[in-house]
From TrEMBL:
Catalytic activity: ATP + H2O = AMP + diphosphate + H(+)
Pfam families cross-referenced by the UniProt entry: MazG
Database matches in InterPro entries: MazG-like_dom, NTP-PPase_MazG-like_C, NTP-PPase_MazG-like_N, NTP_PyrPHydrolase_MazG
MF annotations from Gene Ontology: ATP diphosphatase activity
Name used for this protein in its record: Nucleoside triphosphate pyrophosphohydrolase
Protein origin, superkingdom: Bacteria
């Protein structure tokens, strides 16, 4: 397929154009006072909040909410682009054109004559094209660049750790397999224990950081998204703790008045109850599909 053969969706183009025009009006003279006073830095936290709200809607499989949250996330793109346009840096059209050019350039198996029959082959091509792009960009800049410079320091630490580990692995600076990482996790855990005995807060923080870094790379080797894994654990903890609260309330007890053994027993009871509910729900779902 050539770029000229791409279908055009006039209704979609009109809808996106309308949203962009509304954003421009909000930022125009005599526009919205709140929108006018915003800066790139002031709305960063809103962008992060919107990303997590998209995640939440996906995890809840609430597609009505997802539609709304994606709109809120699109607003962030419109906002940044409009502020850049106000400062004569770039426009929303520049953003879209840059994205389109990148997608076409990185999909030569669709828009060119390169063959890529499997997802792995596509990823290999994608990474090689990125390498060439970075070489060209580096040639335009002064001074040497680190392989890790493309990993934003402002991203969440767990994501940053995953990214820089993946980058280092491209030059074979990595553990050979998951067993190697497990050994590193054991080593770092032992170092945490040693610093606990020494009772040095700064060293404890450093060693806990090393332990977390190693666990993130264990997840990478196991092809597990550590953020998703931890969010899943958080969700399970929330559900089990809420079940503990419900059971204790039904029995006229307060969690704060229980000892450690009682709390542990109640936790185990909550786990069993939720597991039974999940099995029942799965059986119902299978029955509906049958």
């Amino acid at each position: 397929m050539t770029e000229q053969e791409l279908p055009h969706n006039a209704e979609l183009e009109a809808s996106l154009g309308r949203a962009a025009a509304i954003m421009a009006r909000l930022r125009a003279p005599n526009g919205c006072p709140w929108d006018l006073e915003q800066t790139f830095d002031s709305i960063k936290r809103h962008t992060l909040e919107e990303v997590y709200e998209v995640f939440d809607a996906i995890e809840r499989r609430n597609f009505a909410d997802l539609k709304d949250e994606l709109g809120d996330l699109l607003l962030q793109v419109l906002f940044y682009a409009q502020m850049a346009s106000d400062e004569s840096r770039f426009t929303l059209r520049d953003v879209a054109d840059n994205l389109s050019a990148k997608l076409i350039r990185r999909h030569p198996h669709i828009f060119g004559d390169v063959e890529a029959e499997t997802p792995d082959a596509v990823l290999r091509n994608w990474e090689q094209i990125k390498v060439e792009e970075k070489k060209a960009k580096a040639a335009e800049e002064d001074g040497p660049r680190s392989l890790l410079d493309d990993v934003p320091r402002s991203m969440p630490a767990m994501m940053e750790a995953t990214k820089i580990g993946s980058k280092a692995a491209k030059v074979h600076f990595d553990w050979p397999d998951a067993q190697g990482v497990l050994a590193k996790v054991d080593e770092e855990l032992a170092e945490v224990r040693a610093e606990l005995a020494a009772n040095d807060p700064e060293r404890i923080e450093s060693e806990v950081g090393d332990l977390l870094f190693s666990v993130v790379h264990l997840a990478r080797h196991l092809k597990v998204d550590p953020e998703q894994a931890l969010r899943g654990t958080n969700a399970r903890f929330r559900a089990r703790f809420a079940a503990m609260e419900s059971v204790s309330e039904a029995r006229g007890q307060e969690l704060s008045g229980m000892n450690a053994d009682q709390l542990e027993a109640l936790w185990a009871e909550a786990k069993r109850g939720l597991a039974a509910e999940n099995h029942q729900k799965q059986d119902q779902d299978e029955g509906e599909r049958a």
